Amino acid sequence: MFISRPSPTAARPGRLAPLALALFGLVVLLLPGAAPAAPVPDSFANLAEKLLPSVVNISTTQTVRNPHGAMEMPQFPPGSPFEEFFRDFMERQQGGDDRPHKANSLGSGFIIDPAGYIVTNNHVIADADEISVKLHDDSVFQATVVGRDPKVDLALLKIDPGKKTLVPVAFGNSDEARVGDWVLAIGNPFGFGGTVTTGIVSARARDINAGPYDDFIQTDAPINRGNSGGPMFNMKGEVIGINAAIISPSGGSIGIGFAIPSALATPVIDDLRKYGKVHRGWLGVRIQSLDADMAEAMGLPDSHGALVASVDPNGPGQKAGLKNGDVVLRFDDRDIPEMRRLPRVVAATPIGKKVEMVVWRDGKKVTLGATVGEMPEDPAEKLARTKGGKDKPAQPREGSQAIPGTGLTVATLTPPLRERFGLGEDSNGVVVTEIKGDSAAAEKGLRPGDLIIEADHKPIRAPQELAKAVEDGRRANQRSLLLRVENPQQLRYIALPLGEAKR
Questions:
Q1: In CATH, what number is assigned to the domain containing residue 416?
Q2: φ and ψ at 9, to 5 degrees?
Q3: What is the pLDDT of residues 62-73, one digit of tens each?
Q4: Are residues 289 and 270 in the same domain?
Q5: How many helices, marked H, and strands, marked E, lie in the chain?
Q6: What is the pLDDT of residues 399-408, one digit of tens each?
Q7: Which residues of 232-245 are buried (b: 16+ CB within 10 A; e: fewer)?
Q8: Residue 221, domain extent
Q9: Number of domains in the chain
Q10: Are 427 and 419 contacting, i.e. CB atoms less than 8 angstroms apart?
Q11: Which of 63, 133, 229, 461 is deepest in the core (most CB within 10 A)?
Q12: Which tens digit of pLDDT belongs to each residue from 126-168?
């Protein structure tokens, strides 16, 4: 094995080397804005000894059927020798039956109250029939679920400790954690309880598409399977994160782990303890992110903000005067630099609080006042039920048309087209029937079956109206046309490049 070692720096005889070192130290001291670094710990032993009794192992049991799933027999010609071979193979894989059996899983948690309240991840105890908690001294208790929140992936458990004295830990402020700060994680990786690992805060505010409120702390402290639900501590011994996820091709730690920050977790846990569920602020809007083309089409200087794709007719946003196509720039004195910030800010706002919003509308900033509502159990379903309103516009003339220079062919909605693309009777707009594969429309993600319901905030009810909007945009030297597009899965805005129509 070849081991590379750094070469020592040669120093000339005399006082040159000490002088150089002194000058280097002087330069460091005079660097502007240089902050003193926190001392490197000689050992984490004292901190670990103090915190280990507060971290628990969680094991769950659930009833499952046929863990290998329902396997279908491949089709072979009658009498084929492979038929018997595959039948025997599948029976061995499936155990010959699908009788229910017990499956176990392991995770971690930590005590927050000597009365027996324990925090963990929701995915650790999801679908569990039984939950057991093992303390640091190996005593075991059965736990009940006080409440859980799948959106943030947190759960609150309760055990009855009897005469057992539990050692709780306190939450710290994750907002104070800086990239490069030391952190310590304790958990139950691969069933090895009471395991301590250390590392640093690698990044803040990570979005890994795990849920609507992603704001993870990234760390290189080794986190493996079974660490889920365990605490991440700062050097004061305060919980600043709940370990929840890793990125790994093998399932083992590669130094990319994620923790739910305490600033996001503590209000959730407080609600679970008080109410058994989470009460979140709600604005009643669907939003999407902005790209540079959309921002330019709206006259915005950059792509910051959250674009309102639709407004719930019965929600707080509608009562505040929000409109489709508004871009929310500020909410309750907080900037909204990107789309995903708005749901987190609104959800954390107290229900009933009156707030100011700054939105971009028709090329200028507009200030609106809103009263934050309480998020329903499933706002997406409510929006789908109420979408469309009472007034239904008259059906336009039938017909289809290719829109020059866009790659789009659209048609008036008809009963056969509604059936073909699975569109509801209350749907409006023109339906995309064809897309050229190398067109701007295809690059922007438009697909057959999409409904174009607005162009530059004006309703579209016939192909001729869309063609006119495209032509008007070109005459006005617009680089793109803002379309409002809907399909059974989503409602969004698209900035369609106009280019030059081929004559």
A1: 2.30.42.10
A2: -85, 125
A3: 766 554 444 555
A4: no
A5: 12, 28
A6: 578 888 888 9
A7: bbbbebbbbbbbbb
A8: 174-275
A9: 3
A10: no
A11: 229
A12: 888 899 999 999 999 999 999 999 888 999 999 999 999 999 9
On whether residue 430 sits in a domain, the answer given is yes
Please identify every residue annotated as catalytic. 123, 153, 228
Cα 274 to Cα 143: distance, rounded to the nearest angstrom? 18
Q: Model confidence over 55-112: pLDDT tens digits?
A: 999 998 876 655 444 455 555 455 545 555 555 655 555 554 555 556 677 899 999 9
Q: Which of 15-29, 137-151, 376-390, 447-461 has the lowest mean pLDDT?
A: 15-29
Burial zone of 181 (CB within 10 Å; 0-12 exposed, 13-18 middle, 19+ buried): middle
Q: In this structure, is residue 85 part of a structural domain? A: no
Residue from 250, 167, 243 nearest 199 by CA = 243
Output the pTM of the full model: 0.62
How far is Cα 130 from Cα 132, in angstroms, rounded to an integer? 7
Pairing verdict, β 451-455 and 430-435: antiparallel
Judgement on whether residues 247 and 304 belong to the same structural domain of the protein:
no
Q: What is the mean pLDDT of residues 322-339?
A: 92
Query: In whole angstroms, what is the distance from residue 469 CA to residue 282 CA?
Result: 35
